[in-house]
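Pipeline run #58 for the internal structure catalog. This entry was flagged by the ingest filter as a single-chain record with no existing model, so it goes straight to prediction. Upstream metadata was stripped on purpose; only the residue string is passed forward. Reviewer on rotation: M.T. Logging verbosity set to normal.
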Amino acid sequence: MLLGLSLSSAVVAADSPIASLTVNDAPKERYLTLDATIEPVMAATVSAQTSGRILSINYDVNDRVPANASLLRITSTEQGASLAAAEAEYARALALNTDAQAQLKRYSELFPQGAISKGDMDRITAQAKSAQGAVKAAKAQVEKARESVAYTQVYAPFSGIVTQRHVEIGEAVAPGQALLSGYSLDQMRAVLMVPQQYLRALKNNPQIEIALDDGRRFELNDFQVFNFASGVGHNFEVRVPFPDKTRDLAPSTMAKASFVIDKRPMVLIPQSALYTQNELSAVYLKQGDDFLLTQVRVGEKQGDQVVILAGLKAGDEIALNAYDALLKQRTP
């Protein structure tokens, strides 16, 4: 059975200047460490909403883009002509409506006097309503044409970095064709796949530590667990958002995610007590008046401590600093 370690006060033996600690039996939390991938919360591919040729591209791959910046421009000759035609039709509809409303007003004044028949009055009323409807339809066509012209200028939906360019200058594009891809720097998250047998432990201890390769660690308890398992491996995807404005995280980089899965007796020693050289992992174990180098089998790291799977037992006394013990023992 694995044993636990509580660090007693570092002591110096009467006949030795080497500081030491005693291994004791104490239960410790056991962590599961999994690989995680850093990814942006917001990522998008901007597509063309109108047809034409690419006139200019203002940003390239790896460029930082502010929100609402103009990404590229598409030819607008056809769209401009459509807008001009729509505006002309709108002006014509307004003129016809003005005349129709004026006639309706005159007929409305004459009808009570019996100068206008009921049929003529109904006809003029219908013409006036039709003219009003034509104005609304023409106005809608103008708005549609203006929107089509606006589509020739493609803007960034959010601030971020361009990751891929799908078109070149002079290339013809059609609606739905991909133009540029990118992601936002404002919000990043770590994504990990949790095996089915550890999902309950994660929900019972809802805290995940994310360790980055630059040494930074984040203790996070706000995460999302998918309600379905993957078809391959039967793992559950877990998404852990980082604090806002963590802008120096690069997507697709790796991290380590750790969380508590149970509590059991185990041996933990400080990293300073472990001597490593090539494939050798050892500690300086006190035997009599001397500290002898003793090989151990190590497990995962937990903070500034490391799990010892074999080679130590409760009551063993080891050097607090293995390299200090090595130097002092070599000193005549």
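catalog note: Residues 1-16 have pLDDT under 50 and may be disordered.
catalog note: The two ends are 40 Å apart (CA to CA).
status: ready for reviewer M.T.
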